[in-house]
Amino acid sequence: MTDMQSAARAFFTFPTFAVAGASSNPAKFGHRIFAWYLAHNLPAVPVNPTCSSITVRRKTFDTVASPSKLEDPKNTGLSVITPPPVTAQLLREAKEAGVRAVWLQPGSFTERELEFAVREFPGAAVGGFAEGTVGGEGWCVLVDGDAAISAAEQERGRGEKL
């Protein structure tokens, strides 16, 4: 298992998830990724400072404005679908709030943000083009999430601590 595969597995050991950049617009990846969490029956909170709620799959969800507003940041994995300058600030806020795992979606980072994430969220930062992804755009929850969930479930089934 590669380091990034291990990080993806660790990401899905968290009981709750947040999606920074979540949107009501079905054409946006923030919408698609939030919908992916819902389709997998994973508890997810939309993070969007520009609106108080979003609608996905005909249901309305209240948003939080930043990672610092999450109910339990230490037990929340944060998926990031924002432009790199926003991602840089978001990662700093997430670290200060106590978030311990992040998944940087393709297009949400430059090398600078990825390096920060890998350094500040050790063993639980997913992103980039490291070996193990099956997608041509890099590590993406829409493409690599199912395998990461399966790996996390297998580890839990063996009683191994991640």
Automatic annotation (TrEMBL):
Gene3D superfamilies: NAD(P)-binding Rossmann-like Domain (3.40.50.720). InterPro entries: CoA-bd (IPR003781), NAD(P)-bd_dom_sf (IPR036291). SUPFAM superfamilies: NAD(P)-binding Rossmann-fold domains. SMART domains: CoA_binding. Residues 11-108 form the CoA-binding domain. This is CoA-binding domain-containing protein.
